[in-house]
Structures are given as C-alpha cells and as structure tokens.
Amino acid sequence: MSPLIEFRGVTKSFGGPPVLDGIDLTVEAGEVFAVIGHSGAGKSTLVRLVNALEKVTSGSVLVDGVDLTTLSERGLREVRLGIGMVFQQFNLLRSRTVFGNIAYPLRVAGWAKADRERRVTELLHFVGLADKAWQYPDQLSGGQKQRVGIARALATNPRVLLADEATSALDPETTAEVLRLLKRVNTEFGVTIVVITHEMEVVREIADRVAVLESGRVVEHGTLHEVFTAPRERTTKRFVETVLRARPDADGLAQLRERHPGTLVTAQVRDGSRVGAVLSDAGRHGVRFEVVHGGVKELGAASFGSLTLELVGADAGVVAVVAGLRAVTEVEELG
Ligand SMILES: Nc1ncnc2c1ncn2[C@@H]1O[C@H](COP(=O)(O)OP(=O)(O)OP(=O)(O)O)[C@@H](O)[C@H]1O
C-alpha cells in the first residue's frame, strides 16, 4: 500500500484557538480509514481539508503525493474530481429524480448523454435501486436516499470517498446495510474510504484503521484490532466500551454478587486464546463455571470480547483454573 492522503503537521484555526492542532496522519490507498471523535472534535474540518473546502492554517495536506497548498483553484478542482463525498443529510436535489441526482456530477463533468446513461444504470444496479430510477428523493426511505448519495459520489469514478457521518441519520439496521454497501465500494472498486463518525460500532463494522480525535488532536491511532483490543487513552476506552461492555460496572457487579457468590473473573477472549480449552478442563480441578456477563463480537476477520465468569469450587481448584486462564489471556479478578 502507498499513502493516498497525508496530513503533515496540520493546524487549522478559524481565528480563535486551533480547531485542529498538529495532525500527522496517513491514509493508505485501498483502505477504510475511520476518524472517530465526539461532537466538536474537529472531524468535519479534517475531511474538508482533504477536498480543499477549507485551507490549512499551517502544515500540509497531500493527496496522491500532491501538496494541496501548492495548487491553484483549477488544480484543486481537478483533485476534487477524484474525491467523492457522502453526507449525513444526503444532500440530494429534491427536484431531480434518483437518476437525475446520480447523473448530476456527470453533467457537470461534461459526460456525453449515452455515457451518462450507461454509468447511472450501472450504479443504480450496484446500489440496488434500479427500480427507483424515476422516483424523487422525497419518495425514498433514509437508507435509499443514502444509497443514491453513494451512487452519486461514485459517478465520476473517484479514488477516494469521504463519508461524513453518513449513517448518523439512520436506524441501526439501515446503518448496517449502508456500511455493507460502503465496504463493497471499497473491496469491489478499490476505492479508499475515509469514514468520519462518532459511533464506535461504525468503526468496528467497516474500518481497517482508526484515529481517535479529541479537541483537535489525534490522541490514538492504529489498526482496528490494536485500538479495540488494547486501547490506551481514556476516550478510546470509553468508545470501545460503547460497543462491548467489557466488564460489569459497579452497580452491575453488586447485582451479580448477590446472585453469584463464587469467584468472579473477567477474561479477555480472542481468536486462538484457548479460553474455551481451559474452561473445559475446569472440572478436572473440581471447579464449575458459569458465564454471567460479557460478549464476543467480530472484529474484521477475528473475534474479540470478554467474559465474566463465576468459578465455584475449592480454593485450590479455583486458583488453578485462574492460573490456567492467565496463561492464555488477560484475566481480572473482580473484587
Ligand atoms: N467555518 C467555521 N468557522 C468557525 N468555527 C468553525 C468553523 N467550522 C468549524 N468550526 C469550529 O471548529 C470546531 C470543530 O468543528 P467540526 O465541525 O470540525 O467538529 P466535528 O468533530 O465534526 O463535530 P460535529 O460532529 O459536531 O460536526 C467546533 O468548535 C466548530 O465550532
């Protein structure tokens, strides 16, 4: 892979204190890169720098090796042609049909009528809306509108798709559908995707790598696996916990204790961590176990999660099982 988008020491201010402060990030060609952060962290500003809707205050943004600060307005227009954008509120033209919306950027780019029709038809099939070509945006559901938005963004064959909170206006099921479509855009067309979101579930579903933005700074970044399984920063840990409640909180623990007087431990579960093998051996130590909290989710090609277990048996047996678990994964005894 090679860098397609690079932020080098980027600072952006609108006159007051910086909204982005010393951003160094690289998005590789062909990946899905997510930027997660709370409202006001600077996410939208970060993507607007990529298609030069905003200009850096200092530092530089490179797209395909070209420093945007060196380009004329004409040069920037050319770069923008290679970048598609998908919005939270879809931004469709209400007065145009689905077909007309998808064809619009092709008109602007001067495509001939026959080429436009071929391309739009192709895209309508790709996003599964061939039967809606002559409907108007107001006749569509939110998920359908976003599929039109994605088709329109892809019309001119961009190399990069910027999706700014593209699923934030959608319910969870529709969100999953739209994310699957974005993933297909990435795998079938090789389009590099930058996803801006405040939802860790979106990151889990789609991203290869993720950066966590807080008050204009990247506080943590890494592969999906790194960030989910070993988050370092408080903000990141909180985001991860929104996807998977790693261990019971204080109230939950108090309730669990009432029902489960045995030893409570939380064990991390990953592919190949052999937690199951250790537990199936617990009987040999005279220990029974019960899963009382937790969950396991897919993370790219792997699984991750945590299980809180009640272990019941003689002290020596419980100690042996906990030692067995510790030999294969991280274990926390809940006090
Ligand atoms: N054109 C502008 N002029 C002045 N301040 C701006 C401008 N655009 C953004 N800001 C400020 O920059 C900060 C970051 O905004 P930004 O929209 O990038 O954050 P965000 O993480 O995308 O948040 P949200 O999800 O709420 O949009 C905010 O404090 C915002 O008020």
From TrEMBL:
It comes from the Bacteria. The lineage of its organism: Bacteria, Bacillati, Actinomycetota, Actinomycetes, Pseudonocardiales. GO terms for molecular function: ATP binding; ATP hydrolysis activity. Pfam families: ABC_tran, NIL. Part of the ABC transporter FtsEX involved in cellular division. Has ATPase activity. Signal peptide: none annotated. This is Methionine ABC transporter ATP-binding protein. Residues 5-240 form the ABC transporter domain. GO terms for biological process: amino acid transport. CDD domains: ABC_MetN_methionine_transporter (cd03258). GO terms for cellular component: plasma membrane. Homodimer. Forms a membrane-associated complex with FtsX. The keyword Repeat does not apply. Keywords: Amino-acid transport, ATP-binding, Cell membrane, Membrane, Nucleotide-binding, Translocase, Transport. InterPro entries: AAA+_ATPase, ABC_transporter-like_ATP-bd, ABC_transporter-like_CS, ACT-like_dom_sf, MetN_ABC, MetN_ABC_transporter-like, NIL_domain, P-loop_NTPase.
